[in-house]
Design goal:
Layout (H helix, E strand, L loop, with lengths): L5 H5 L3 H18 L5 H8 L5 H28 L4 H20 L6 H29 L5 H30 L1 H26 L4
Helix pairs in contact: 2-7, 2-8, 4-6, 5-6, 5-8, 7-8
Protein name: Major facilitator superfamily (MFS) profile domain-containing protein
Main location: membrane
Subcellular location: Cell membrane
Length: 202
Amino acid sequence: MTKFTLKEVKGVNQFIWILILSTLLITFGFGLITPIFAVFLTRQVTGGTLAVVGIAEMIYLATKSIFQIPISLLIDKTPGEKIDFYCMFLGGILITMVPFLYLFASFPWQVFLLQFIHGLGAAFDWPAWMGLFTRHIDKNKESFEWSLQTTLGELGMAGAAVVGGLLADRLGFKPVFLLVGIFSALTFLLLFIFYQKIKTEK
């Protein structure tokens, strides 16, 4: 078995680190609410049932799945990487809107609309992110860097699940949704760092 050292982590290029950290922020943010989302819908939404929870999740996944294929084809056919930035920017705006708007959601149709917006945002963001990660990954470190991204993201979600549950239990759902929105917005800072790296692209 190959010995793991910090040298492997230090050898990851800066571009990949920016992408990993952006994912960590967004997964930690939404990880705060994901484990208790069903409880929120059934307790805080008028007419919220377990069926509503299932439909809401279906809308998010179906929207993301349907739209991300044509969006990914558009990205691949467009020269350069600015298209990736624009897709991530648009997706980021849509995704960041969702937790703040959930503060005002009272009925199932509003939840369904927000899940559609979230899915559309993810459909713009995720293909662009994967394309950038794939193109900038360090040679002969593909498995390690993909695993590093997945590991940090899942550890972030694990920690967020505990924090989100404790916060919702003590303070209610609104502070949790606010934190989700704040963490989502922070990804914009990393997004603009990324843009600085490609704005001189010809």
